Amino acid sequence: MASALRDELLATMESIQTVDCHSHTASREQYYEAAPLSIFNLSSYFFRDIESVTGMAPAKLYEGCNTDEQRWQRLKGVLAKARNVSYWRHNIVAFQALFGLDGEDLTDDNWHAVNDAIAERSVDPGWYDYVTEGVCNLRTQVRNIPWFEDWEPRYFTAILRMEPALELWQPEPRGRLEEHLDQEISDLSSCAQAIGALVEQYRERGAVGIKLAHAYRRTLHSERVSAVAASVIFERALRGERLSPAQIKQFEDYVIFFLADLCAQTGLVFDIHTGVQGNWGRVPESDPVLLLPLIHAHRSTRFNLYHAGYPYSREMGILGKHCPNVWLNMAWMYVITMEGSRQSLSEWIDLVPGFRILGFGSDVGWPELIWAHLLMARSCIADVLEEKVRRDFLSRDAALDLARMMVRDNGVDFYGLDS
Ligand SMILES: [Zn+2]
User: Fold this and answer.
1) CA distances from residue 130 to 11, 157, 287 in whole angstroms, order as listed
2) Where are the alpha helices (DSSP H) in 182-309?
3) Residue 1 has pLDDT above 70, yes or no
4) Exposure string over 143-171, b if 16+ CB within 10 A, otherwise e
5) Which of 248, 353, 376, 382 has its CA 20 to 30 Å from the CA of residue 11?
6) Cα 181 to ligand 1 centre (Å)
7) Secondary-structure percent of the chain, ordered helix, strand, coil, rounded to 5
8) 331: CA distance to ligand 1 center in Å?
9) N- to C-terminal Cα distance for the chain?
């Protein structure tokens, strides 16, 4: 809804640099390796809906096509069934904002021009910087860095991805860590020491935290396992004996608690994926409330819970209210659902001290889709804050402060970007 305050909120967010509080953006090098891009691959999450519409892997959609005309016909068939979803609308916003799409939809008449514009711009050597720095005006992107990989500090601030630590009962990931550190893992304590050494290497190079996305494949619930119990399990694994699913979970839980302890000691933040998964995801396992034993046991660890825990955003709001060590992160959310984003933010603003709401995380692969996501985010944030002032007795001043805090200041403070 248009109003002077909504415009002022938008102008406030446009006037400052945004901290992208969760990123997977392709590096400059990866981007130009993939270029020229097209309407068929300049996309982020719509592939999941392609899969859900067609019942086949997204790569198969264009199998056997020799021309973009043929590919367009296939895509058009999917769009006839699914162009309503937010994952697709995200692409439309990018096409409109950066590639001259003049219309509300991609059609037989305009797809070609958009496709040509993408192909042309994505090979321009200045385009990547123009989009990330010029258009998006990002202060930094807090990016997931897989084990042993590097990042470009010009664009990114690192968060080390930690799922491999949960897999160290297996020889292959264990071997890679041993090789990287040039040290042997012979028991549980040398295993924990090795994890700590790797995290320390990244911390020394500027990483500000660690991340787990185990909710994609197991429950977020974990409990403290004693070192004695974990040792017995780990030694079985070292001897090459089979572990039961319960034993594997116990080992993982031990490592998860160890990681939370490590964060308390080092000041690193602990980012955790919660909520939304992919197709066939086991939804209830991703409920952030399942993290309570971990959060309660680590009161001086700062937890950063992603994706608004959607659809458990209300639960996450109360988690944020009751647990002063929990930050609530809107990463990915606006392209999942703008309406769900508005509802989540609106409730959280009533519940949670504003400095613990991280209002934007792009969570996409291509810079162009960061920009489209940011436009959707600003629109939702402005909608919510305008409404809180008009209806819910929030002061105009507090709303303008919150806009700045959610897109910039909270990220700077939380990740310690100024220090
Ligand atoms: Zn992510």
Assistant:
1) 21, 19, 38
2) 188-204, 227-238, 245-266, 292-297
3) no
4) bbbebeeebeeebbbbbbbbbbbbebbee
5) 353
6) 27
7) 60, 10, 35
8) 7
9) 39
**CB of 327 closer than 8 Å to CB of 296:** no
* Token couple for 37: 């891009």
* pLDDT, tens digit, 9 for 90 and up, residues 203-252: 999 999 999 999 999 999 999 999 999 999 999 999 999 999 999 999 99
Amino acid 254: pLDDT: 98
363 Cα–ligand 1 center, Å: 5
Q: Phi and psi (nearest 5°) for 312?
A: -95, 40
Count how many residues are written for the chain: 419
Place of tokens 């924990």: 192
Looking at every residue in the chain, the average pLDDT score rounds to 97
Say if residues 252 and 222 touch (Cβ distance below 8 Å). yes
DSSP for 17-51 reads PEEEEEE-PPPHHHHHHH-S--TTTS-SSHHHHHH
Q: Indicate the fold that domain 133-414 takes in CATH.
A: TIM Barrel (3.20.20)
What is the pLDDT, as a whole number, of residue 278?
87
User: Cα(185)–Cα(200) distance, rounded to whole angstroms?
Assistant: 17
- The DSSP H or E segment spanning 374 is helix 367-391
- Of residues 296, 316, 404, 419, the one with CA closest to residue 355: 404
Q: How many CA atoms lie within 13 A of 403 on its CB side?
A: 30
CA of 286 to the centre of ligand 1 (A): 14
Q: Tell me what the mean pLDDT of segment 306-323 comes to.
A: 98
Tokens 């020799």, located at residue: 66
Give the whole-angstrom CA distance, residue 195 versus residue 252: 13
Domain ranges of the chain: 36-121, 133-414
Does residue 59 register a pLDDT over 90? no
Tell me the pLDDT tens digit for each residue of 370-387. Answer: 999 999 999 999 999 999
Q: Residues 316, 308: contact at Cβ < 8 Å? A: yes
Task: Identify the CA nearest to 390 among candidates 346, 343, 340.
Answer: 346
User: From ligand 1's centre to the CA of 68, what distance in Å?
Assistant: 30
